[in-house]
Amino acid sequence: MQIWGGKNFIVPSYQRSYRWGEREIQALLQDIWDFAQMQNQSDFYCLQPVVVKNNKEKYRIIDGQQRLTTIFLIIKFLENKDFFNISYETRLNSTDFLKNIKDKTQEEIENIDFYHFYKAYEVIQGFFNNESIDRNKFLEVLLDKCKVLWYEIAPKENENEVFIRLNIGKIPLVEAENIKALFLSKNDELDSDDLKDRAELWYRSEIEARENRDFRYCVLNKINKKEDIENKILKDDIQRIEAYLKSLVPPSNKKHYLFEYFYKCYKDGTLNNQWNELENAINTLSGFASGQGNDKIDREIFHYLGFLILSGENIYSLYKEWKNDTNKELFSQKLLAKIQNKISKIENIEELQYKKDDAKIKEILLLFNLEYLICEESSNEYFKFNRFVLEQWSLEHIYAQKSESIQGAIKGKDNKSIIQWLEETLSYIDDDMLKQEIDQSIKESNFDDESFKKLCKKINDNFENDDTLHTIQNLTLLDKESNSQIGNQIFSQKRKAIQKLGEQDKLIPIATRKVFEKVFSENKSNPDIFEQKDQEDYLAAIKESLKRYTKENK
């Protein structure tokens, strides 16, 4: 490792920035420490290869950047010195952040690159906080007994092509990286300034794709439920830019179809034309998906695009519609026609049943929210598609009379809350016999015997068997976490809980807020009850709002 001392490394513009996570860092640290403790130790421990190109005393890193940066951070933590130097062709501020990372705080994390540096440093710090790890011994082994497979390509070799060859066949995550390397390859038509401009546009597009809490990415690219939702985050910059690449390439189920398309263009000499197309796509689509337009037409395009992407449309076909005639009014009408075609296939929305028709009901309610926002021009509020997907919004009963909501009150002998639940339940039940039993239970107020348990079961069964309570007129959208917390509460309790969640900056779609405020109800005299007439008024509001999307307006 001593051979690296004082060397200057540069990360080329076609490379992505540092992205190693805890798993990779811990593995490297543990491997070195395991070697340090071996009794029959070999002469040296061999790390994975580093591929570089020598460029006037600066080594351009083609492969091994993640490992090299991690070693830099390890030595920085143990000795607080720069054992070698790393600079970045595009991300100029990253060098300074790395050099001074020991003094940085969480508040100084300005971008996603700094975030990953900082998190890596925290992992390293945590590893050495273990008292069983001898820091001096670890450093000695790292510097004196760790060797790297060093591969220096020939001066005439094209480093971009070497990078691509090394990365072809790796996991899909790096597909956009390989495409970036293609676009930044030198050729007779491009000089160094052209390549610099391309690198800066790519990087700027990565940064801007993260603005507005990922509105851009979510409106243009369908989120991978398994990976993105389970991790509760959206993938970082390199993957968000794929939305623009996808807009240029016909969709395919074939693995690495994007890279193969652009690689063919690279081979046949048409890649520069593709770059011009990509610039146009970035400029156009980033504007449509930014959520920053003030005109109604901008709001329509933003919300239509988001709805269609969530419904399974691909950005290639949508962008193709735009390129056929670059007129905003016409484009908005084309998107509207696509939505009308989808929604008109859903007939008799009042008959859709909870569970059986969940996907259709969710689609209708999502569109209801979007249409409400489109029409509310004065607020200029945009739907937060990213949070809607990542927080796993699902259907929730507006009124639910299940007894699970009072189990805590029963255990705590909170008779007041139990009686409140029984009295509200009375407002919804048509069964006279059951009503009499509830009245009698309220009078006796004996809620810890077997007879009350049986009454609760009858009330629950009544709710389950009442079909009207499981149709769209009694359903709204709520995120998974809130749903699990307040799902079984009665309307009055839910209303207060949702109001509180809104005050805590929890995302509550506008129609969900309004239905619990009884905005759609003609009779607002009792804010704590959501009766049959309230349900009918809510259904009427949905139908009226969505008239231009349904067969009624065809």
Automatic annotation (TrEMBL):
Residues 352-500 form the GmrSD restriction endonucleases C-terminal domain. It comes from the Bacteria. InterPro entries: GmrSD_C, GmrSD_N. Residues 7-184 form the GmrSD restriction endonucleases N-terminal domain. This is DUF262 domain-containing protein.
